[in-house]
Write a structure and sequence with these properties.
The structure holds two protein chains of two kinds.
Chain A (H helix, E strand, L loop, with lengths): L2 E3 L4 E5 L4 E3 L2 E3 L5 E8 L6 E7 L6 E3 L2 E6 L4 E6 L8 E9 L5 E3 L3 E6 L1
Parallel strand pairs in A: 2-12
Antiparallel strand pairs in A: 1-4, 3-9, 5-6, 5-10, 7-8, 8-9, 10-11, 10-12
Chain B lengths: L4 E3 L2 E4 L5 E6 L6 E7 L6 E7 L2 E5 L7 E4 L6 E5 L8 E8 L7 E2 L3 E5 L1
Parallel strand pairs in B: 2-11
Antiparallel strand pairs in B: 1-3, 3-8, 4-5, 4-9, 5-6, 7-8, 9-10, 9-11
Classes of the chains: A mainly beta, B mainly beta.
Chain lengths: 114, 113
């Protein structure tokens, strides 16, 4: 069965601090995809990144970086020098090779305090 | 704006009434998905279409729920005889076959009184 766990329900940081959001997944598939989405108060899920199971290279995009480790089944997301606009709920998701279904974690609500 | 659009954005209805939501996917996307999201939870898969064919349905999709995608373009999700437990955000997403990335619309927030 596919499962995504985001153990951190809520995180608060002061602006300019770094913050890491954890994501642990379970799957028996050898080929799968991992995603991060941002959901601001407006409600729309915004796509941030996709990784496939064969690509363990870490990725950096501006202040965002992702650390994928198959050995620990984790796909963690770090925001460097956080800003108030980063305040949102962040979801980690998993899909199999078909991409037919996404399995979402319960999300981590991030509040960046000015 | 060429993203996924949903209409209406908000719907308040009385228990027992029928409601219908519409989703317009990104124009070249052949896959369309419906999800339900309740407060404090991640989105839960309801159903998905490849072109006009409905290929998969979740156990969450009771017989009061029906979805269509005529001509493989926009999709509608209808809930008959609404119940208070149907109150949720209903999200639509679309993707290309080879992409595996789903792009989400702004959602329709349903409140059943």
């Amino acid at each position: 069965a596919q499962k995504v766990t985001q153990a951190q329900t809520e995180i608060s940081v002061v602006e300019k601090e770094d913050v890491t959001l954890d994501c642990v997944y379970e799957t028996r598939d050898t080929t799968y995809y991992l995603f991060w989405y941002k959901q601001p108060p407006s409600g729309e899920l915004v796509f941030l990144i996709r990784r496939n199971s064969f690509d363990e290279q870490n990725e950096i995009s501006g202040r965002y970086s992702w650390n994928f480790q198959k050995s620990t089944s984790s796909f963690n997301f770090t925001i460097t020098a956080s800003q108030v606009v980063d305040s949102a709920v962040y979801f980690c998701a998993l899909s199999d090779n078909t991409g037919n279904q996404f399995y979402f974690g319960t999300g981590t609500s991030l509040t960046v305090i000015p | 704006d060429t993203g996924v659009s949903q209409d209406p954005r908000h719907k308040i209805t009385k228990r027992g009434q029928n409601v219908t939501f519409r989703c317009d996917p990104i124009s070249e996307h052949n896959r369309l998905y419906w999800y339900r999201q309740t407060l404090g939870q991640g989105p839960e898969f309801l159903t998905y279409f490849q072109n006009e064919a409905q290929l998969e349905k979740s156990r969450l999709l009771s017989d009061r729920f029906s979805a269509e995608r005529p001509k493989g373009s926009f999709s509608t999700l209808e809930i008959q005889r609404t119940e208070q437990g149907d109150s949720a955000m209903y999200l639509c997403a679309s993707s290309l076959d080879i992409s595996k990335t789903q792009y989400f619309g702004p959602g329709t927030r349903l409140l059943v009184l």
